[in-house]
Fold Nitronate monooxygenase.
Amino acid sequence: MLPPILQGLRIPVVASPMFIVSGPELVIAQCKAGIVGSFPALNAREKPGEPPLLEAWLTRITEELDRHNQANPDRPAAPFAVNQIVHRSNARLERDIEICHRHKVPIWITSLGARVEVNEAAHDCGGIALHDVINNVFARKAIEKGADGLIAVAAGAGGHAGPQSPFALVQEIREWWDGPLLLSGSIATGRAVLAAQVMGADLAYIGSPFIATEEANAQAEYKQMICDAGAMDIVTSSLFTGVSGNYLAPSIRRAGLDPDRLGAADAETMNFAEDASKAKAWSQIWGAGQGIGAVHDVVPAATRVERLAAEYVSAKAEMARL
Ligand SMILES: Cc1cc2nc3c(=O)[nH]c(=O)nc-3n(C[C@H](O)[C@H](O)[C@H](O)COP(=O)(O)O)c2cc1C
């Protein structure tokens, strides 16, 4: 049984948080369209001396979704989620937890580290915590530390993808975990959402297709590259953040590097600090998962969800006829 907060979505989809790309416009559009929208807390970066931008974002998202719900009681918005990067270089973590707790964020997504205090803060304000994992060992650790659900990040996902096949990852986790399980990695059609459920996941976790939406905070060239590229254009490298991730080869070429000879970086170099100069240096290197071959145009997020929903319904009908 899914927790009530994850029930009643238009389709079983959580839009994943994406560094730089996901902001309030995209989250509000995703939630209004009926899927969980999310953003990394670190995307809300104020200038020194200014009040925390995260406060303003949370107020705006909550108020706009409340207004939508009052005007549309028959099709209320889906809840939203905030992603916390639980890594030692994230100096803002404690502050951001306090802000999210005070704003009663309903869904907390943690990545790169599982910590009891973060899960406790989520529970204390009535929320749930989902932790993203790339293997079964991390999955067990996350549940031991009090996460309510798991996000299996399989091979082919955008951002910090795992190396494992989604079949292998889901089947190993499902041997012992019957709670909420989300699957991510190259899911870009309604048919693939249904496939994730058939494999044993409850919900699909989708990122890259939402880069090619009007509301995404991404350059027009990045959005167009998502539409033009396919799985063969995705390269895996640890050079840009210190952890293996998937990137668009054309963006690497544009930045003057050879995507076939990138070399590796040390995990110690990973840095989510506010002034990380690397964030600037790599801002033209664009992340994406292998599923983008299914994305051909930049559309409003609501249209992307609409299409996923229509494909999901027709895939279900097709499978029922088997
Ligand atoms: C450009 C980009 C940025 C991302 N940034 C984050 C992030 O800040 N935090 C996080 O937990 N995951 C991040 N991810 C990973 C996503 O949450 C998710 O695992 C992934 O998008 C799923 O695969 P898909 O892109 O193939 O749908 C990012 C993914 C992309 C494509």
